[in-house]
Write a structure and sequence with these properties.
The complex is a heterodimer of chains A (306) and B (198). With 306 residues, chain A is α+β, with helices and mostly antiparallel strands. Chain A contains 10 helices and 12 strands. Chain B folds into 2 domains: 69 residues, Translation Initiation Factor IF3 (2-Layer Sandwich), CATH 3.30.110; 125 residues, DsrEFH-like (Hypothetical Protein Ychn, Chain: A, 3-Layer(aba) Sandwich), CATH 3.40.1260.10. In chain B, the strands form 2 sheets. Chain B has a 5-stranded parallel sheet with strand order 8-7-6-5-9. A 4-stranded mixed sheet of chain B has the order 1-2-4-3, with helices on one face. The chains are: A alpha+beta (306), B alpha/beta (198). Chains A and B meet through helix 3, helix 7 and helix 8 of A and helix 2 and helix 6 of B.
Chain lengths: 306, 198
């Protein structure tokens, strides 16, 4: 893979039937609970490997920790969270590196394997493909409401588990179908990441706003202005590519631009297999998975949201 | 007029500062200075969600969001104008678009009649909240829409559940009231002297 277009991870071919897939991601805490922060960070790092169709094998921790001001027990909980996510992924922690820093940061570098002919990228949307999203949107807005101390504990827990959920099942189900392109939804939001798939593809995309799964509470918070700055940046950056029909409420548009932490996979699957992959995802427990749009011949490299 | 300087603050801090200022003083007019467009849009949305009409001015690199309370002046002047009435705060939670069980057609008629007759409560009627199927009374095509809009213009605060609108896919069709959330509903119930649930 070159660097000419944004991809989720780097791929290096070793033999004709084996390639390495490598990725790294780390960030500052997005939830208060250290254990769940660790789990979410690991799920997020693993996700890049899953989005490309790979199988994660080994991992290295990356830690920046304020040892002068913070109890080491916090770090142990974070690492335990990361470890539990890796165990769930059947990947092995082989090492890591830590430095002292004023601000806590944690993440991982993940190495996986993949057959070189089976690498999935953001390219190759095919006309007629159906788009499937596997997790609901709105975690960035909910996290902003959490910062504002306006989100009830039950919602915090629900969204924490959503962010900590691995994309492993979705990636495994995807292997059984004719998938042409895939990415995971993170900081650029649904529309930002979809724009990356559409740019340079020569294809257009039509999204059905009412089919897109969202965390219901995010609507209320968006209406109150609890929207992360990143959502506005994502809109500004990509708005030239996107047309919203008048019926698409502004708050929904914001949710479609909302930066996600460890969001779901966005899968472009051959038209005839859309229903089948959807029911396979649902029967494997991904109940929020939904068919959200389709790839068109035209308008070229534009997204229409209806 | 209340002035808030929220420059140098990252979201959601400017919204929280504005929210705190409104809670402390409930001013009729508020002016918020921010230094980035995300904060500007968020503060503008927040003020609008609280019943303010907003205007925007650019001042060099800063944004000035000015909010004027659309509904509140009437609401606020009410105790002074009519001290003998409005002595209690009645909240009506309307979770259905028809009144009672039995005959649906009758239930719809009764609800229309009920909402029209509500004006007899005068200024005691403090909040009207629509949740679940009740949100369908606040959208275009609702028989009581003109009545509800009239109440709102007269200063009644009408709240419509955002989760419910979204559930029924009616967000774009809401024609009256503010989109609300459970926290606002619970807070309003706590403040009310009397809660009537339909």
């Amino acid at each position: 893979m070159g660097l000419d277009r944004a991809d989720d991870a780097g791929v290096y071919k070793i033999t004709d039937d084996l390639a390495l897939i490598q990725t790294v991601d780390f960030f500052t805490p997005i939830v208060d609970d250290p254990y769940w922060f660790g789990r979410i960070a690991a799920a997020n790092a693993l996700s890049d490997v899953y989005a490309m169709g790979g199988i994660p094998k080994t991992a290295m921790n990356i830690v920046a920790f304020p040892a002068q001001t913070m109890d080491l027990a916090v770090l142990r909980q974070i690492i335990q969270g990361g470890l539990d996510a890796l165990t769930e992924a059947d990947a092995v922690l082989v090492g890591g590196h830590s430095i002292e820093d004023k601000e806590l940061k944690y993440g991982l570098s993940i190495t996986g394997v993949i057959h070189p002919a089976r690498v999935l990228t953001k390219k190759h949307l095919q006309p007629g493909d159906r788009l499937i999203l596997t997790k609901p949107l709105g975690s960035g807005i909910v996290n902003t409401a959490v910062k504002a101390e306006m989100a009830p504990a039950a919602l915090v827990e629900r969204v924490t588990r959503l962010m900590a959920a691995l994309n492993r099942t979705a990636a495994e189900v995807m292997q059984r179908f004719k998938v042409h392109a895939c990415t995971d939804i993170t900081g650029f939001g649904l529309l930002g990441h979809l724009s990356e798939m559409v740019a340079g593809s020569g294809r257009g995309v039509r999204l059905f706003s009412t089919q897109i799964p969202i965390i219901a509470e995010s609507v209320e918070y968006a209406a109150m202005g609890l929207i992360p700055a990143g959502a506005y940046k994502n809109r500004e950056f990509r708005q030239a590519m996107i047309t919203f029909e008048a019926s698409v409420a502004r708050v929904l548009q914001d949710i479609f631009f909302d930066p996600q932490t460890s969001g779901g996979l966005l899968i472009s699957v051959a038209a005839g297999q859309a229903e089948e992959i959807l029911s396979a995802l649902k029967s494997e427990g991904l109940e929020d998975a939904a068919l959200i749009g389709e790839v068109m011949e035209a308008p070229e490299e534009k997204i229409l949201v209806k | 007029m209340k002035e808030i300087d929220a420059r140098g603050l990252a979201c959601p801090a400017p919204v929280l500062q504005t929210k705190a200022a409104l809670r402390e003083e409930s001013p009729g007019q508020v002016q918020v200075v921010v230094d980035n467009s995300a904060a500007q849009q968020n503060v503008q949305r927040f003020l609008e969600s609280q019943g303010f009409e907003t205007t925007l001015e650019q001042k060099g690199a800063d944004f000035l969001v000015i909010g004027r309370c659309a509904a509140a002046p009437a609401e606020r002047s009410r105790p002074a104008a009519a001290p003998e009435t409005g002595s209690q705060k009645i909240l009506i939670l309307c979770a259905t678009d028809r009144m009672g069980y039995g005959d649906d057609e009758l239930g719809l008629k009764l609800m229309v009649n009920y909402l029209r007759t509500l004006k007899e409560m005068g200024p005691d009627l403090w909040r009207l909240i629509f949740v679940n199927n009740g949100v369908k009374l606040a959208i275009d095509g609702s028989e009581v829409l003109p009545d509800l809009q009239g109440y709102e213009q007269a200063g009644l605060k009408i709240l419509v559940c955002g989760t419910c609108l979204n559930h029924f896919n009616l967000l774009a069709r809401k024609q009256v009231g503010e989109t609300t959330n459970m926290l606002d509903i619970v807070t309003a119930m706590q403040l009310a002297d009397k809660v009537i649930s339909l």
